[in-house]
Amino acid sequence: MKKHVKHLVTLIVLIGMSACEKDEIAPIESKPDLGSTDSEALKNFNNGMIKSYHNDVVLKWNEAISLAIDNKMPPPAEARIYAMVSLAMHDALNTIVPKYETTAVDNSGVDARGVSKKNITPLADAAISQAAFEVLTQLFPASQASADELLATILSGIKDADYRETGIAIGTAAASALLLKRQDDIPMGFSSYQMGTDPGVHQANYMPWAIANPPIWPNNAVYAANLGNLAPFGMASGHQFRAVPPYPINSREYTADFNEVKRLGCTACPDRTDEQTEIGTFWIENVSSSTNRIARFMIHQEKLDGWEAARLLALLHITQIDANISSFEGKYFYNYWRPITAIRAADTDGNENTTGDLGWTSISTTPPTPDYPSTHAYTGGAGSELLKLFFGRDKISIRVTSPYYLPGVERKLTSFTQIGRENALSRIYIGFHFRKAVEEGEKKGRLLGKYVFEHALRELRH
Predict the structure, then answer these.
(1) pTM as predicted
(2) Residue 373 contacts by C-beta under 8 Å, 6 or more apart in sequence?
């Protein structure tokens, strides 16, 4: 790690030497005396440079991630790739001019005196592109061809070879540091899982997918049973925001939740309204994908500069991977059964107020994980809270689409809170979760989003 930091500091000093040789005419702006103790003058000067850097290249690589991975893998795997590529871009930028805290690279010793409005764009474009390219292709090799093409296009547009090569080196260092930091991440995959057949316990053998796809996953399998042990990206531990216990299955609250999802979440439930059906289907896609599109819209609408855009995307995707970690920690801590299991086994659950239906199916294939809490609600709550805090308001006016499940259908959203709430309720309407799972997931997700906003990638004090 120290080796990377020393290399980065050397690179920035070389930028300064190169800039002094190239700039025969002094820039219009007047630089402060960067050797003095006037830290406020330095901060103002750096902020002026940063604001001059557009978000184009940040968004080009963000879109490249989307095209490569959206809804092509389980949500936790997608969230991890989004987080790592976004953090690599953010770290690379903040190694050129330190504005915010970094994740894997120590930027405290960076000397940015040679960076100016004349060279910040080529340096940043090259650094972002190389960092994103190396992390994306390492984590998702199938993206290699499209990533090669985008990298070549951007780098070929940087005419100054010195700035291009220096930016490439900075991006490589940022990517290497991040990949090194996360090299011991546990793999996510399917494993056999049998916790018994007692009422209330998650039972893999009840699930439609349990024996449908061997050897892709084993019989009676679950996905990512150890994900709660993955080192978090922003929160302190996987159990920091653990959900409170679910309802006992003989309680009135459980009975109400049971009857609700049985009535509204089945394949052709007559009591489910058209609006509820649309909400359920609209939000099926992975939350990292849907919230990322909303963040892109906000970046354009609010005209964020490149540094702000990179920070927003990095923070957002920290919340997504951490919400996956936290919710999965709770899922396998409580091992609570899914509605499809509960409804089919209700005649033997010990609750005289529930009635079984052996033919009941959810509107879509139930995911191979326990019910409680809902990861979808957790990630939606975390993302919407982060966006609300980042922009300093809840009220918005946007129209969003669901290209993977309801193409051509738009939903008008008037607040970030609405995004999290619809996203959570959708899991009842498609029969995946009890209400308690979605309400607790959304609640804990919002707490996590607030924590990440307050503790990760904070603005540096000069």
Answers:
(1) 0.91
(2) 243, 327, 330, 331, 437, 438, 440, 441, 444
